[in-house]
Amino acid sequence: MTLTQRQTFEPDSRAIDFVDEGSGPAVVLLPAAGLDFAYLGTLASILVEEDFRVVRIGSRTPGEAVTMHDLAQDVVDVLDALGIEQAWIGGHAFGGAVARTVAIDHHDHVAGVLLLGVEAGAPATDERERALRAVFGADFSPDAGVEALQAAALTATATEEWAAVAPDTPTLVIQGTADAVTPAANGLALQQSQPALVSVKEVAGAGHLFALTHPGETSWFIEDYLDWD
Description:
By secondary structure, the chain is α/β, with parallel strands linked by helices.
């Protein structure tokens, strides 16, 4: 049995929001930097309808400085609290960077990694701002406090500690061909680094927020890759 309303996990003064829906193989969805996971709701709903258990997990509230390893531990702590021993860990942009860190640090918890756009470090600010406002409206801004915490976590962590493909970990990259923030070249470069582990699928004509604007295509790639019917 799962709870479909937003919950808050609060160990050690951390406050981490999550939503747990459905039953079946567990899929985690982590949002991009500074964004609430609500925009991944349609994608989550489609996957739930296809008999997946989907856990959307947000960032801890801003406070003391953290590394990518701390943010990865947050994800694992939520899964442990839910009794989920292993999951496919997915994330959009920065969320994918956290997902990759989870796979490196907590290999036994990870069946595989799903990357919705491949983060390659700090994204181009102008392109990201344009992409977000094109979808969410001209007055939209990410959560500045959360975004700053996440940017600092990247800075505090050596790139090789989060960007590598974890050993023996199947990794699916889904990317929009018109994404200027996490461009398709990033995913292709990751695939070239580990061709036996990394598969790439592209959503034609889609921009940075393809998980929101093209949820059907995105979910189909996930369902097909996980070979669940």
